[in-house]
Design a protein that fits this description.
With 307 residues, this protein is of the alpha+beta class. Helix content is 26%, strand content 22%. Residues 256-275 are annotated as: Disordered.
Length: 307
C-alpha cells in the first residue's frame, strides 16, 4: 500500500464459515485432506505448484512461512493460513483469497509481531439465495465488511464498522497495559485485541490448549516434497521393562517363576495395580510403533495370565 513502509511477513489466517459452532465442526470433522488442499490452491492459482510438506496440528506448530499454505477443511468450515507481504488494511485482503471459498461469513486475523502489527476483519455474504453447501468461489461484490481493525500501537491503519461489545473494555481504557510511550499511542497492544476478537468470533482461541486444528501444509515455490526416511528398527526388552514396573507394585521376584510347589497361592494383581503398571510401562516406552505395542500387549498378557 502506498504511503507505508513495506511490511513483509504478515501471517494471515482466514476462516470461511457456514456454521455457528466452529469448534464443534473441528472436533467432529475429518482429518486433514490433501485433495481438499490441492483443490483450494488450484482455485487460488491454477499455475502455482502445490507441494505437500507436512500434516500436523496447526495450533501446536510454528506459523506458515512465505510461499506456504496451511489448509484445513471441515463440514461448514475452511481454514487457511499463509503469509501476505505489505498488508496494512486487513479489509483489503487479496480478493482471490477472500472469495476463494464460498461461505456465509469470512473472518481474517493478521499478525506481524516484528512490527507490533495486528488486525482482524469480518465479512458477511449478502447473497441470501446462496446454497450453504455450495463452496465455490463467490463474487467480491457479495462480500460486505462488517468490522475491520488494524493497527500498531502508534498508528491505526483502519477502523471500519461498529466495534463489537468485546472491544468495549479496550476503548474505555480498562485494558491499559502501561506499555505506551506517547499520549497518542493505543493503551493496549493490537495483538491483544486481535486475540480477543478471535475468541469472540470463532468461539475459542487458537493455541496449544485449544481445539486441535489438523492441517495439510503446502509449498508453492517449487520446492520438492520432503523425503521421510524409514524409521530404524527398534527392539524392546519387554521382560526388563515389565519387570522394573512390576517391582514398583510389589509384585516380587517369585512372580517370574512357575514353581507352584514353592510359590504360595496368589491372586491376580488388583485392577488398579495393573493400570498403574500399564501407565509406568507407557512412560518407559514413550511413543512406539504398532509392532512394538503389539509385542508389549502379548508380553503383558503372558506375564499376568490367570494361573
Amino acid at each position: 500500500m502506498s504511503g507505508h513502509t513495506p511490511q513483509p511477513g504478515t501471517v494471515v489466517t482466514v476462516w470461511y464459515t457456514d456454521t455457528d459452532d466452529i469448534a464443534h465442526a473441528i472436533a467432529t470433522g475429518p482429518h486433514a485432506d490433501r485433495g481438499f488442499g490441492r483443490k483450494f490452491l488450484a482455485q487460488l492459482n491454477p499455475y502455482a505448484p502445490a507441494t505437500p510438506i507436512g500434516e500436523f496440528p496447526m495450533n501446536r506448530s510454528v506459523p506458515a512461512s512465505v510461499d506456504e499454505y496451511y489448509i484445513a477443511g471441515y463440514p461448514g468450515v475452511t481454514m487457511v493460513q499463509t503469509v501476505v507481504d505489505d498488508l496494512w488494511e486487513v479489509s483489503k485482503l487479496d480478493p482471490k483469497l477472500l472469495c476463494c471459498v464460498g461461505a456465509r461469513d469470512v473472518y481474517a486475523f493478521a499478525a506481524n509481531p516484528s512490527f507490533g502489527y495486528a488486525g482482524f476483519a469480518h465479512w458477511h455474504n449478502s447473497d441470501t439465495d446462496r446454497d450453504p453447501a455450495d463452496t465455490s468461489p463467490v463474487s467480491l461484490s457479495s462480500m460486505t465488511v462488517k468490522r475491520a481493525f488494524a493497527a500498531k500501537r502508534s498508528r491505526v491503519y483502519e477502523d471500519i464498522g461498529l466495534p463489537g461489545t468485546f472491544e468495549g473494555p479496550f476503548w474505555a481504557g480498562e485494558m491499559d497495559d502501561g506499555q505506551h510511550s506517547s499520549p497518542l499511542d493505543l493503551r493496549f497492544a493490537p495483538s491483544t485485541l486481535r486475540r480477543v476478537a478471535e475468541r469472540e468470533w470463532l468461539g475459542f482461541t487458537v493455541s496449544p490448549l485449544g481445539p486441535t486444528i489438523r492441517v495439510v501444509a503446502f509449498a508453492t515455490d517449487g520446492r520438492p516434497e520432503p523425503k521421510i526416511e524409514n524409521e530404524p528398527h527398534i527392539t524392546f526388552d519387554f521382560d526388563s521393562i515389565i519387570g522394573q514396573s512390576a517391582r514398583k507394585l510389589g509384585i516380587g521376584a517369585l512372580d517370574d517363576y512357575d514353581d507352584y510347589e514353592t510359590d504360595p497361592p496368589r491372586s491376580s494383581p488388583p485392577a488398579t495395580d495393573l493400570k498403574k503398571l500399564a501407565d509406568d510401562v507407557g512412560q518407559a516406552l514413550g511413543t512406539i510403533g504398532s509392532k512394538a505395542r503389539e509385542g508389549l500387549g502379548k508380553a503383558l498378557g503372558e506375564r499376568f495370565k490367570p494361573r
